[in-house]
Fold this protein.
Amino acid sequence: MTGKWTERPEGGGRAALRLLIAIALGLGRAPARMILYPVALYFMLRRGPERRASRAYLTRVLGRPATARDVFRHVLNFSRVTLDRVFLLHDGLQRFEVETTGLDAAHAAVALNRGVLVFGAHFGSFEVLRALSVHRPDIEFRAVIDLEQNPSVSQLMNALNPALAATVINARQAGPAVVLAMKDALDQGAFVTLLADRVRPGGRASEVDFLGSRAPFPTAPWEIAAALRVPVVLCFGVYLGGNRYHLYFEIMTERIVRDREGGRPLPEWIQSFADRLAARAREAPYNWFNFYDFWAG
């Protein structure tokens, strides 16, 4: 059964996030980061399922039994990236050092067709990619985000930057409406970004190899890409510590051709995505932010 991640609430809640935003914008980033140590410790001690999921994942990716210190570092990294979302949405990139690899090649892919689908994962920072759009007015980014999974948090975060909030395509709309909104944005030459690692409840999945075991990945992103016939680019926003992030772009294909048209079966594309995600996870293991049993769905 897939979709179990929806049964777990996001870390914190509306009141906690309001407090975090007030502290962050009132005191600044450095004092707010100091407060994250007790916050991360509390989260680690109080959220047993997430703690166990972190330990199981880290044991896989590190190739050794994960320790309590590893789990704390993992949760602290998640807390730091969550805090940085506040500043990225409120101030853009001005507080951060953000390197990019492959962005110009990805931008050139727009010329191959109408727009570009950018696939990412719950790995590192998605907000860095959104904030990049402010500093690259030559590229329009449209993010496909489920605004209903945690609506109060989405409302608060998006209130920090109404202009960016207006570019969001709500993934909770009926399927055809989401695809039509994506097509409209792609027709205008936009980069349409979405996360392709979590299977929604009732959604179709393909089980592929990921970090040593079979894990379910959603097929919907790849079905949409095949139907819209646009280039697919991968992007992972890796948190490097301090105020440093690195956005890695990689062109995956100019167009996904279905196997019935002489191309590859979709599971092969999904396996390629899983392989690239696994490689990034091994390079930066504490950037993985799926705090549930990913392999069980």
About this structure: The chain has eleven helices and nine strands. The chain has a mean pLDDT of 87. The radius of gyration is 18 Å.
